[in-house]
Amino acid sequence: MIDLLWDNLDYAASMVLFCIGLYAVITRNNLIKKFMGLNIMETAIFAFIVALGVVDGGNAPIMGEGAAKPFINPLPQALILTGIVVAVSTTALALSLVIRIWRQCGTIEADELREAE
Amino acid sequence: MTSWPPLLVLFVLTPLVGAVLTPAVSDTSGRRSWEWALGTMLLTSAMAGALIMRVLDEGPFSYVVGGWVAPYGIELRFDEFSAFVAVVCLLGLLAVIFSRHYARDALAPGRIPYYYTLLLLNMTGMIGFIVTGDLFNLYVFMEILSLSAYALVAISGEKTAEMAAFKYLVMGAVSSLSILFGVGLLYALTGSLNMADVTGRLAGSAEAPLVLAFAALTLGFMVKSALFPLHIWLPDAHAIAPSPVSAVLSGLVVKVGILGMLRVYQIAYGSGAIDLSGLNLMLTWLGAISIVMGAFFAVFQDDIKMMLAYSTISNIGYIVMGLGLASPYSLIGASVHVFNHALIKATLFLGAGALIHQTGRRTLTGLAGVGRSMPLTTAAVSIGAISIVGIPPTAGFLCKWYIALGAMQAEEPLFAVALVFGALLIFVYYIRMVNAFYFRKPQEAGAPAVHEAPATMLVPVLILAALCLVMGVLGRLPLSFIEPAVTRLLAPLGGG
Question: Which H or E run contains B1?
Fold first, then answer.
């Protein structure tokens, strides 16, 4: 069991990170902290998918001098680049919403906002 | 013309380019951006028509983007389920027409061009999601769709709208991550992202990661479609958004979850690598609970749009139950209800939007007696109400009938009972609405004289109401259209 965990440490780490993020999203009252939790979850998934493409002792798949097999799979990295763009846009939208909520309500604590409603 | 290959990729690009250019062509009054959005939607709708003609002629077809052949490049694929783009384009077009006066009154002038940009981006995401054959591409289009939807909910700039948008955003982002995780796992198992290719390679994969992948995908799509325990974001977001946006959100955006589930089923059934009977049982129960709970909450709402929002949860329950029962009839019923519910809910939301716009009130008590001053709009809303209850000559009847037949076919008559019980509850709250419109006296004697909505609002509502009736009378058409797709979906299970 321990060996299995040790061999797949990268996957286990992203799972732990994911759960930390989810915990923050669910339990935090502050909207910014809630969103930071979401960013942690995003990072966890991105790390997981990038880790999928890693080959032990692999080289960067770039042509030219010193290019030797085995290569690291570049596709997950390309995918996650797109994923990061999506995450950045989500963050930008969320932060602008938080700013507007703060301007209108004077607070960004979820429980106080619920009372204000 | 209909078999011209690049049409499929242009179909996705047209609303995208239109969306990006909207702020550039607009003027201060917002008139030009409306015309531009209208033109874009007309062009897109014409393309949708041509593509559907082609799928009728020759069955599913695909387009290879950039000449990179299927497992390596991105494939766009158009099958019978993709015919949902017809409703997408129709609703998008009508929502744009409806917005002409509505947006001018409900939004700050500076926001109008961006409103149309977001609406067109939403259409792009929807269309792309439906026609793509690539799993990661699916995620990207889903995010275009979701991000524009969050922004559209918040666009009116009211305090509650921004709160609702934030809640929607957090739930939506978590579900998107869940879907991305599932896609990543499928890629790890098969080394491919093309849906057809993944289906072929899944057989013989290790069971645990496969189950995890399908669980993550299902969870994500359940949140997107607001199935019962995960529905909490929906009522606020759909009720507070501007009415044309509500129509698009309720009619189309929640269907993304359903269409995503259909794609998941296509992969799972096609590969035969995983037994989904446990998932099906869960979806059937959650669907049944959604039907009853959605209807139950709706009965207690006084706000007309809030009521419609809860009714969406109930109707998603019908569709998911139909998917979960997994018998041919229930799947046909569920797929057609995806189409018909979009029409019906758009009728109701646009109609309600017209009522709210003209009277300035949004509660049933406030709208009492409105049937006298706005007879056409109220008649259209009433037709929508009758359709959604599922009374025979209307669009809602056939799908619910087919799902009930499917429950019998799957030898689960209990769920047919849940369906009828849900329909009765729905009947109760729509009767309340119709009663308020026609048979109650207006509350305030000194209320300003209300008259019919302008033509740009009235015509879309009337077209949709007419379609609710037409789809009820010509119900065989969509049923026989979707049947080959359902037969193909269930074929690996031994004919269902």
Answer: none
Residues of A in contact with B151 (CB under 8 A): 93
Candidate from A38, A48, A100 with C-beta closest to B173: A38
Q: Structure pTM? A: 0.90
Q: What are the chain A neighbours of B189 within 8 Å (beta carbons)?
A: none
Q: Which of A52, A83, A117 sits opposite B188 (nearest CB)?
A: A52
**Domain ranges (residues) in chain B:** 276-496
- Inspect the interface and report whether the beta carbons of B188 and A45 lie closer than 8 Å: no
Residues B221 and B223: their CA atoms lie apart, in Å, by 5
Asked if residue B383 has pLDDT above 50, the reply is: yes
Task: Please tell me the distance from the alpha carbon of residue B284 to that of residue B320, in angstroms, as a whole number.
Answer: 7
**Cβ–Cβ < 8 Å for B249, B241:** yes
Residue B277: exposure state from Cβ atoms within 10 A (0-12, 13-18, ≥19): exposed
* Chain A residue with the nearest C-alpha to that of B155: A97
Smallest Cα–Cα separation from B237: which of B173, B178, B172, B293?
B172
Q: What is the pLDDT of residue B443?
A: 65
Q: What is the pLDDT of residues A66-99, one digit of tens each?
A: 777 778 888 888 889 999 999 999 999 999 999 9
Q: How close does chain B come to A64, measured CA to CA in Å?
A: 23
What is A2-116's CATH number, 3.40.50.620, 1.10.287.3510, 1.20.120.530, 1.10.287.990? 1.10.287.3510
Does A86 sit within 8 Å of B174, measured CB to CB? no
Question: Are the beta carbons of B154 and A100 separated by less than 8 Å?
Answer: yes
* β-pair partners for B62: B77
Q: Is B174 on the interface with A (CB under 8 A)?
A: yes
Cis omega (within 30 of 0) for bond into B23: no
* Separation of alpha carbons B143 and A88, rounded Å: 12
Query: Tell me: the pLDDT tens digits for B216-273?
Result: 999 999 998 888 888 888 888 888 888 889 889 888 888 888 988 888 888 888 877 7
Residue A58 phi/psi, 5-degree rounding, is -80, 160
Distances (CA, A) of B97 to B41, B350, B459, B460: 10, 11, 9, 7
User: Can you give the length of chain A in residues?
Assistant: 117
Place of tokens 């716009």: B357
Q: Which two tokens mark B426?
A: 């729905």
pLDDT band at B124 (very low <50, low <70, confident <90, very high): very high
Q: How does residue B496 score in pLDDT terms, banded at 50, 70 and 90? A: very low
So where are chain A's domains?
Answer: 2-116
Cα–Cα distance for residue pair A2/B95, rounded to 1 Å: 57
The two tokens of residue B362 are 């949004």
ipTM for this prediction: 0.92
Residue B446 clears pLDDT 60, i.e. is over it: no
**What residue in A sits closest to B176 (Cα-Cα)?**
A42
Which residues are CB-neighbours of A51 under 8 A, at least 6 positions away? A10, A11, A14
**Structure token pair of residue B448:** 């300003």
pLDDT for the residue B495: 42
